[in-house]
Amino acid sequence: MAARILSGTETGKQIREELRQEIQELKRAGVTPGLAAVLVGDNPASQIYVRNKIRACEELELYSERITPPASIRTEELLEQIGQLNRRPEIDAILVQLPLPSPVDAPRVLMAVDPAKDVDGFHPVNVGALVANRPALRPCTPAGIMELLRRHEIEIKGRRAVVIGRSDIVGKPLALLLLHAHATVTICHSHTQDLPGVARSADILVAAMGRAAFVTPEFIRPGATVIDVGINRIEDPGVAEKLFARHPQRLEAFRRKGSALVGDVHPDVVEVAGALTPVPGGVGPLTIAMLMVNTVEAARRRRGQSVPSRSGQMAAAR
Ligand code: NAD
Hints:
This protein has helices at residues 8-28, 44-59, 75-87, 106-112, 124-131, 140-151, 171-180, 195-199, 237-243, 248-257, 283-302; strands at 4-5, 34-38, 63-67, 93-96, 160-164, 184-188, 204-207, 225-228, 232-234, 260-262, 275-276. By secondary structure, the protein is an alpha/beta fold.
């Protein structure tokens, strides 16, 4: 039987609708949460990501602005610009779009963002709060995945979760959130031995490695929940023919467009998994929805208001 599809598009829409109400209430009380997106240089993918984030702010009537220094900017100058954003009261949230051009000292720049405005949750203060399971801004993609699991009533407590990928942005923080939600968590990476065997122990398997269709049906315990974080573009018709051999509609779409987005999970996994996030339309839309949630949360916290509890903020682990 084919897996139940966990639509991030739908869940993202739900989250944004709920947030719309919250934002209107804040506005009536004279508060318009504001996000500043810092986009250094002209990386085309980053431009698209930032455009989508700004558009999401506009749709929800949040204040937003784009700061677009040239790729040649020196670290010191960028630090000065971040400092200005930190000091501006109408800016509640600052995101620095990654990757930064290589001469820029990215860790120093991320450290310079005021932790109270660090809407991506990358500052060491927020990372520390995550490790200690204390309330703080959580990285958007992992927080979105937790929200997706919660809203689809997928049990986490007592389950075995395997996270493939240990990046600071996805794998590591997600593993911690799953741990705080009382899963038994294994983190895998490029040096893990017998990856398919470890993956098959998972009730919840997360693929966040950036390797197109790497996770094949042999990685999956039948009935497992599979979360596909990867976003990979394929353009080789030979690769598409193989991947979509059992998915004629996707092959047809590939032929029309000349490319397709695939996750880290092989399309055939849909036949083995119990539940699966699609790519596109899975984790991606949740990331932006959670960025909006975090922007509102930052605005509330900075004004000493309470923040509704969400799945990223679990009760103390025992
Ligand atoms: P990354 O490159 O920083 O980290 C990849 C991780 O995967 C590393 O920890 C590495 O050890 C592991 N890995 C790589 N090859 C492996 C292998 N063969 N076996 C086992 N582990 C392996 O990537 P990232 O920033 O975490 O992103 C991962 C993927 O998720 C990318 O495709 C990225 O585009 C996507 N992504 C999607 C969203 C979203 O909103 N949907 C957000 C962030 C990242």
